[in-house]
Amino acid sequence: MDSVDNNDIVTIKYDSNGNQQWIQRYNGSGNMRDEPSKILINGNGEILICGRTENVHDDDCILLKYEASTGNPVWAQPAIYGGPFANDDRATNMTIDASNNIYVCGYSQTGSAPANEDPVVIKYDDSGNIQGFYSYVALGEDEPVAISHDLTGNIFVAFRTDVDPDPLTSNFNFLTMKFDSGLNPVWATPPQYDSPINQDDEPADLIVSPNGDVYVIGTSENDSSGGRINKNWLTLVYSTSGSQLAISNYDGPNGTDDSPNGLAIRGSSLWVCGYTEGTNNSQRNNTVVRYDSLISVNELAGLKSSIVYPNPFNQSATISIENESSEKYSLVITDIAGAIVSEISFFGNKTEIHKGNLAAGIYQYSISAKSTVVKR
Ligand SMILES: [Ca+2]
Ligand SMILES: [Ca+2]
Ligand SMILES: [Ca+2]
Ligand SMILES: [Ca+2]
Fold it and tell me: Which ligand is nearest to the Cα of residue 113, counting in written order?
């Protein structure tokens, strides 16, 4: 912090009573801007920090490792990645697998300035050696925002991708990719989400459930009713094979801009936190939403996917399914204890459910036909 443009990566350990145990400061060789983006602890209790380190307007991705008890650097030098151009490379997030491999995601500006941002994902072993690498050249400014792994070492990354060819404007979409532990892409066609009105849809976080389902949350400009574009919380669920299992859109109490930023799975619930705008437009409120109907989605052979919109709902919602047959479907709604609260039959690919006498709460549904269970 010697001058305006020289900040450093500072790491402090506190004990459980809040007493400082050690402090470490990293100032890069450029004596310029060094900033962290994520801190994690590996299986040996060591501290990993990723971020950016600057050398005269040329940022590189940096990965630091400290000993837990002393704060001393474990590696002789931090792991630094600079792309093929003398331009900005910045780490945005990371995850650590069961073997202490570190997967860092970030972006590289490829080409000479001004250059687009292209995503990179780098695998480091426990010693900081690069073991795998993935990148793609993007149309616009593409950035990975979140990365996680499943129990068998597959890596999942949520990217914000810009699909608008005009460099002055954007149409951001969610892009979710699965990699094997060597960073080879697994899904032939990684799923994207673009709102029906082709506005900006930006993922914020991603998590993998113990059964391999992938949950991605973010902010979606998917509603232009009322003469303005309205940001909503979007939650997407993908199976481990990349098919979309569920989608949920949450519009806050004011019907204006709402944005989620983190998620966690606890028991059979998905918890999402962020902000919603209250009835006074300028007022943003911390908000937590618990989803139960998105969890325990078991994909069966021959399954057809279904969507509940909106979810949660006040008066009524539509459940639509991918319906390829003329079979009669039976919809059963159960409360959290498993008791059936409503049962209806319908033909076609959607039906409406109404609040009726149902108390506010979380309900699960299943749709079945003579031959197939669609979703549970
Ligand atoms: Ca510095
Ligand atoms: Ca660089
Ligand atoms: Ca979009
Ligand atoms: Ca909204």
Answer: 2
